[in-house]
Design goal:
Helix content is 35%, strand content 25%. It is globular and about 45 Å long. The structure holds adenosine-5'-triphosphate (ATP) and magnesium ion. Adenosine-5'-triphosphate (ATP) binds next to strand 2 and helix 1. Magnesium ion binds next to helix 1.
Length: 228
Amino acid sequence: MTPAGSLLAAHDLRKTYGSTPALDGASFSVHPGEVVAVMGPSGSGKSTLLHCLAGIITPDSGTITYDGRELSAMSDAERSALRRSVFGFVFQFGQLVPELTCVENVALPLRLNGTRRKDAERTARTWMERLEVEDIGSKRPGEVSGGQGQRVAVARALAGSPKVIFADEPTGALDSLNGERVMQLLTEAARSANVAVVLVTHEARVAAYSDRDVTVRDGRARDLEHAA
Ligand SMILES: Nc1ncnc2c1ncn2[C@@H]1O[C@H](COP(=O)(O)OP(=O)(O)OP(=O)(O)O)[C@@H](O)[C@H]1O
Ligand SMILES: [Mg+2]
């Protein structure tokens, strides 16, 4: 069921909201260090698939395995611990904590894992340099541009040394130039750290940065790895 060598795999996921089927037999997998673009029309189930894979919502049926362990067999506490320790997240907007400075935002996953402030902020600054936003460390998210904010969000997702980054329309609120730069920096940094990326997008130019594309239509993911 799980494609050989995959890090995170979903098989035959189903999820219904009331009478609306959001996922209707979706299968998916990603390998370590691989960037997969999840594409498809609005309402097709992309975000629902991503939220299931990340353990944020529970599918009605189907299985999800991370590194050979089934998410549904874990307790809520184990799933939260997994999310904190091996998953990173980048969303379209609103994910930065407005009261914290940019460097404090990037350091947050490390602080939550018990890293001391000084060490967490040193690591945070290293990632901010990689994402070319080291000069805005002491600003708050409300004082930076959209593109800078997304690069801070990417730095934060990477700072906790995740194995998988989930990105839902990470460039959706940016102009094309800024969007391309964010994608370039995100995929370069992820590949060099061997981090897998599950990237939801409906923009072909964003998908151009992926290793592989998966199309979701009517709640079904068409993943060539799963083509029977
Ligand atoms: N919390 C929810 N409550 C009820 N229905 C939902 C909920 N979330 C999603 N849906 C429905 O499930 C279906 C899939 O939604 P989903 O958000 O996964 O689509 P999407 O592919 O991410 O779309 P978009 O490109 O617009 O973000 C849609 O019909 C949507 O209306
Ligand atoms: Mg969506």
